[in-house]
Each structure stands twice: as C-alpha cells, then as structure tokens.
Amino acid sequence: MRWMRMLGGCLTVMALAACGSNDAVGPQGRLKLREGQSLDQAQECGVDLPQCPQGLSCLVLPLDGVPQARCVNGATVCEEFVTCTGGTECIMMLSYPGQVACSGRCTSDCDSSVSSSP
C-alpha cells in the first residue's frame, strides 16, 4: 500500500515536470472572432453573474489580449464563432467558466503576449 502512494507521488511529479518543460512552450496562436461574429449580443457570465440561458455555456474568450466571459454555444464555439491563427487549433478547456484557447505551435500571426511569457 505504501509503495503505491510513493509511485503515485512520483508519477505526479514526473507529469508536472514534463508539463512545465520549456521545450513544449512556444508561440501560441491568437484567438480571433470569425468573420461576421460579434460579442455584442453574447451575455456576460461568471461566478457572480446570472447563469447562461439553456443551451449556452459560460466560456472565457481571450480576444485582443482581454479575457471576456460570455454565454456561447460550447458545442460549436470553435467551428462557428472563433478561429485560431498560425496553424493552431481551437480547443475548449474544462473549468468554470470554461476557457477557449489555441493549441499547437504557432507559425505566423502568433500571440506575442503569450509567447513572450517566461
């Protein structure tokens, strides 16, 4: 039983070390609204705000360097609402509120505020 706890602790440390490796960090794509889309009609959301209407999810969209929490359709946010630059892929991270980000190595039009982080 004791060895299982030690093994679990070692695996956790190894996973954290791998995730924190600077080799995996590089320029990230910039999240952009798709043509014709706007946040103007999307309800603000968050911990101290009203819940989103049924069928919509509270998601944080970092646009132009400013994270904005809005009620959007989580099932189609990447396909219909936002896109990523530089050959990166739009992903949704599970949390509350959920977060939309770009994944993969950016090759052009990268987010300098993210890629210049230490």
From TrEMBL:
PROSITE patterns, per database record: PROKAR_LIPOPROTEIN
Highest taxon above the source species: Bacteria
InterPro entries: Growth_fac_rcpt_cys_sf
Key words, A-Z: Signal
Protein name: Lipoprotein
Source species taxonomy: Bacteria, Pseudomonadati, Myxococcota, Myxococcia, Myxococcales
Signal peptide from the UniProt entry: 1-17
